[in-house]
Automatic annotation (TrEMBL):
It comes from Hydnomerulius pinastri MD-312. Pfam families: HET (PF06985). InterPro entries: HET. Residues 89-181 form the Heterokaryon incompatibility domain. PANTHER family: HET DOMAIN-CONTAINING PROTEIN. This is Heterokaryon incompatibility domain-containing protein.
C-alpha cells in the first residue's frame, strides 16, 4: 500500500459513510461471488462459511475505509485489491489418496464437537496448511473437505466456480506424491488427471512440492517471480516464473510457456486445448466435460448419471459460444 502523503484532509461524516458503504459493497461482492462456499481456517482446522467470513472481516473493512478516506480521495479503485489482500486464501491441488478428511469431519455446522480426523489424508492436509501459512494465508481450500457434497446446489456451484476459485487464490500449492525431482514428472499421476489441468492453468502463482514436502524448484529459482513487499513471506516465489520447472511442465503437458504463464479461458484454440485434455482421465465419465468448463469459459447444468452425453453437451455450448462471437 502507498505511503500516506504529507497533505491530508479531514473527511466529513458523509464522506466517511460513503467510503465505508462503497468498500463494504465491494467486500460483499467478493465474499459471495469470488470466495469458495467454505474455507478451512488454519488456526483451529474448522470449516467456515461465507457468512462467518463476512462477520469476521466486516469490522476490519470498516476500519480500513476510515483510514483510507483520511489520506486518499481516489481510493475506490483499490477496494477489491485491498479486500483480496485481507481475505487471501491458499488452494490445494493433489491426487486423492487414502482416508482423505471429509466435510462433516471438519464442519462445526453438524457436530457440536467435531471429530478429529486422522490418517494419511489428514496429515497431508495439515502439511498443506503449514505451507499456506508461509504465504501469509489464514484460510485454505481443499476439494476433499471444503465441499458439502450432500448439498447438490453447493456441489454444482463448486464445479461451475472452481476455475475462478483457483484463479483468485493467493497461491496454489501442488503436492506431487510420487515425485522427488523434476525428472519424475513423466511418471507423476497428477499430470494424468482431468481436474488438474485447470488447477495448473488457472492460478497466477503456483508452487510444486514433492513427496517429502520439499519444493521441487530450488536454487536461484527461489528468488524469481517475487513481488515487491514479499519479504514478509520468503516462500512467495512463483514456479511459473522459474525456467527449469516451466520447461519440465511444458514437456510433460504439451502446453506452451505462454499459455502456462498467461492462460486466458475462452473458446479459442479448441483443438489445441482438447489435445491437452485428451491425455488425462477422470474417475467419473461426466467429469471429462465438467473439468473443462472453466478452460473454455462456458457453463452448463451438472447432471451426474448422464455419462458421455455430458461431453457432447460441452461441445454444443462451445459451438454456441463461438457462433455468438462470430
Amino acid at each position: 500500500m502507498s505511503t500516506i502523503p504529507e497533505e491530508t484532509y479531514s473527511a466529513s461524516q458523509e464522506e466517511v459513510s460513503t467510503a465505508c458503504q462503497l468498500l463494504l459493497d465491494a467486500f460483499d461482492r467478493y465474499i459471495y461471488n469470488d470466495l469458495p462456499t467454505h474455507l478451512l481456517r488454519i488456526s483451529d482446522m474448522t470449516l467456515v462459511t461465507r457468512d462467518e467470513i463476512w462477520e469476521i472481516f466486516q469490522p476490519k473493512i470498516k476500519a480500513i475505509a476510515r483510514e483510507i478516506i483520511q489520506w486518499e480521495r481516489r481510493w475506490v479503485g483499490w477496494c477489491e485489491r485491498i479486500i483480496e489482500r485481507y481475505l487471501k486464501y491458499a488452494i490445494f491441488s493433489h491426487r486423492w489418496g487414502i482416508r482423505e478428511p471429509l466435510f462433516y469431519q471438519l464442519s462445526s455446522e453438524r457436530h457440536g464437537r467435531k471429530p478429529t480426523p486422522a490418517g494419511p489424508g489428514y496429515e497431508k492436509l495439515v502439511k498443506f496448511c503449514e505451507k499456506a501459512k508461509e504465504y501469509g494465508c489464514e484460510y485454505v481450500w481443499s476439494d476433499t473437505c471444503c465441499i458439502n457434497k450432500e448439498s447438490s446446489s453447493e456441489l454444482e456451484e463448486a464445479i461451475r466456480s472452481m476455475y475462478r476459485w483457483y484463479e483468485c487464490a493467493e497461491v496454489c500449492i501442488v503436492y506431487l506424491a510420487q515425485s522427488s525431482s523434476l525428472e519424475d514428472f513423466g511418471t507423476e499421476p497428477w499430470f494424468t488427471r482431468g481436474w488438474t489441468l485447470q488447477e495448473l492453468l488457472a492460478p497466477t502463482r503456483i508452487r510444486f512440492y514433492g513427496k517429502d514436502w520439499t519444493p521441487l524448484c530450488a536454487g536461484d529459482d527461489e528468488d524469481s517471480g517475487k513481488d515487491e513487499g514479499d519479504e514478509e513471506f520468503p516462500q512467495s516465489a512463483n514456479d511459473k516464473d522459474a525456467d527449469s520447472i516451466l520447461d519440465a511442465l511444458c514437456n510433460v503437458t504439451g502446453i506452451t510457456p505462454q499459455d502456462m504463464r498467461y492462460f486466458r479461458p475462452s473458446c479459442s484454440k479448441v483443438p489445441e486445448r482438447m489435445r491437452w485434455a485428451s491425455k488425462r482421465k477422470t474417475t467419473r465419465i461426466e467429469d471429462v466435460a465438467y473439468s473443462l468448463m472453466g478452460i473454455f469459459d462456458v457453463s452448463m447444468p451438472i447432471a451426474y448419471g448422464e455419462g458421455e452425453r455430458a461431453f457432447y453437451r460441452l461441445l454444443e455450448v462451445i459451438a454456441q459460444s463461438l457462433l455468438r462471437k462470430n
